[in-house]
Amino acid sequence: MKLTIIGTGYVGLTTGTCFAEVGHHVTCVDNDPKKVALLQSGGIPIYEPGLEELIRKNVAAGRLSFTTSTVEGVAKSDVIFIAVPTPPLDDGGVDMSFIEKVAREIAGAVTSYKIIVDKSTVPVKTGEKVAETIRRYCRAGVEFDVVSNPEFLREGFAVEDLMKPDRVVVGVTSQRPVAAMRELYAPFQAPIMITDINSAELIKHASNSFLALKISYINAVSVICEASGADVQEVANGMGMDVRIGRRFLDASLGFGGSCFPKDLSAFIQIAQQLGYDFALLKDVQRINEQQMERFVKKISDTLWVLKGKQIGVLGLAFKQNTDDVRMSPAIELCQRLQREGAVLRVYDPQAMEKARAVLKDVTYVEDMNEVATGCDALVIATEWPQFKKLDLERARKGMTHPIMFDGRNLFDPREMERLGFIYKSIGRR
Ligand code: UDX
Known about the structure:
There is one protein chain. The protein has a 6-stranded parallel β-sheet with strand order 3-2-1-4-5-6, with helices on both faces. The model has no long low-confidence stretch (mean pLDDT 97). The chain is globular and about 75 Å long. The longest helix is centred in the middle third of the chain and has 32 residues, at 197-228. The termini are far apart. It has helices at 10-21, 33-40, 51-60, 70-76, 97-109, 126-137, 158-163, 178-185, 197-228, 232-240, 261-274, 280-304, 330-340, 353-357, 393-399, 414-419; strands at residues 2-6, 25-29, 64-67, 79-82, 114-118, 144-148, 168-172, 192-196, 311-315, 344-348, 364-365, 378-381, 404-407, 423-425. It is of the alpha/beta class. Uridine-5'-diphosphate-xylopyranose is lined by residues 151-155, 208, 211, 215, 249-251, 253, 256-258, 260-261, 319-320, 384.
């Protein structure tokens, strides 16, 4: 099938590439000429494991192309995906201006029946607004359907999540686009759920909020574990063995971040408010997440006493493993808080240093993770990169003024760290 994706961010670019990989002909549109030129020349603006090779392969096979022209993209395909950003507003709401602009652009370009699919994460009832906008701005008599098809990919695992989805959710207002949507997704061999548009939009916000809730839940349990001498990983393992609960997203941490969870939670709380419901439960999820960071910073300052002038090594800047994304990164927030207390930082991340440089100033960026601890009063693990488990602990211990580690991701075994001579403080474990 021929399809067009408008917006080549994490979602649009990975989605388009994976559709090409299964045999569809995909045109990716972006209004940033530099980005399009980079993609056309075989470059890639983000770090996402496996994506670069897939883009090259599918461009070479003639199934994937890039353009700045929405008119060209709309003319080429029968199915048009909207995958533009929906950034947060200061009041917790969602900035819908990109979606609205693209809807008008599509309206101006359509000359025959099109299926317009919204992939961006949007508040419930957005599909209705998109349809209204297109109807208002398109030429008389042109037929179209608006479909909601939310994305559930995780950054860092985006290709895997797209190629093997747990489910595909398709929200429609008529049966007309259903066959095409089924055909589009048939190669992925995943269960396809056909529902109404409002439910599809809500499935996305409700899912992300629930996952954030799961993390805040285990983070709250981690506080009880610390106070009682229990081990939060043991508790999570035991809980996770119940198939009704499941083990995933029960890793206690210094809090969740990224471009999705914080934004989607705020948006869902605001939408609920507008619809007359005070979603206090989700406000608590946010509160627990903020407190988790505060508690971690307090743990550091309680141990080191005065932070002013102390040298602290920080491993990890990305908001999670496997990505170079530092948007709403707990690791960056932690660094900034430590800086405000006067600490001097030496930092490292396997992929995110370039993006971090734009937001995190006056720190020493270290190129080798094993060099970070040198001369430090403490070492902090802020992102769950698996390679940090291979840190040369002996070298770190010898290079530090005093071997203290604060592990915000529970990467190491407390007993082993003690045996190696570290004062080791993690989350929810003695
Ligand atoms: C999330 C959803 O998982 C995905 O389905 C949706 O499409 C987009 O939002 P993403 O933001 O890429 O994906 O990252 P995710 O892997 O969900 O992690 C989010 C944050 O939670 C990270 O900061 C991560 O470190 C943290 N986290 C995750 C925990 O602290 N504990 C966990 O057990 C899991």
